[in-house]
User: What shape does this take?
Amino acid sequence: MDVRGNIDAATEYLRDETTGGIALLAATAVALVWANLGGSYLSFWHTELTLGVGSLSITEDFQHWVNDGLMALFFFVVALEVKREFVTGDLRDRRTATVPVLAALGGVALPAIIFALLTLGSDGASGWAIPTATDIAFAVGVLALLGDRVPAGVKLLLLTIAVVDDVVAIAVIALFYSSGISLAWLGAVVAGLAAIVALRAFGVRRVIAYVPLGVFVWVAMLESGVHATIAGVAVGLLMPAHPVGGRQVLEEVEDRLHPFSSLLVIPLFALANAGIVLDGATISAAAESRIAWAIAVGLVVGKLLGIAGMILLVARLGIGRLPEGVRAQHVWGIAALGGIGFTVSLFIAQLAYSDPLTIDTAKFGIFAGSIVSALLGVAILLKGRRAVTRL
Assistant: This one.
């Protein structure tokens, strides 16, 4: 396995994600300011837009076009990253993959359990998956700000954990946040995916030929009751991971779309969803809300103990292999950074709840938990540079 190549690829990816994280942070700030300047924020994002003609049209408000449409492209890019990692990347090696896979599962299970316990018997229990997500752009962006004070192997470990976390998030959205399933439309989804496979079998190499089929799969998925973003995942996983006619198709498509996803789609998502009115009544309600506390505690405590505990257990048992240079303090540091939920947490909150006040309360918990996790992670990693303990 080419460890140096994987670290170099991770370093390049990290630079891209740092820029995306800055754009995401800026968009979030704009959304918060905009939401507190008056009522134009909600009225704008709830403006409806119709695409198509007659019975072949779809009408959604601007927010849903972003959440259901553009976010499908985001998850398409995520699927490309996942497939590359598991087929040709670091996660193809079983011993190397064991650590991030089990760490990500621990970082999903414990936050969900904490949330469930803190909201037991309340109407907010359906949001159990909100604190299970890790925002890869923010997490690796914060890590990148530390520069060479953090070994390259630590960055690689965080990236691979985030990739597995994305896989779990996709599965959770598909299984638990879909409703009113239409078997006929699901059949259309399967037919569209089969057509894509057929084009590949006939040797069609031009990416543009697959675009109409991808759009068809998205529409069918939207109508099926399964969340439309899963269409992006399904199409992404069908991309060839190995060279086709001498071309690295998956890597070419990923390289072209990743900047568009991180610099446009994700900031637009933040702009459409991060706006919340910061008045005394709303803040007081969030401070007294079991939902907000459950999310914040799940992100800060659940992610920290779930990820770090699993990594340390795997290392102690000797059933996995950590990247070179990773020590105990690094493990605790990246585990804390795993509590930066933000983008996917906001996304799941929109799926879990329909009441605007409950969604705003969830946003407070996400913001608080993510900020504390970021500060905690940086503090641990900076301290760990001075006092390093071997695993």
Summary: Residues 3-178+227-386 form a domain with the Na+/H+ antiporter like fold fold (CATH 1.20.1530.10). The longest strand covers residues 48-51. Residues 163 and 229 are 17 Å apart (CA to CA).
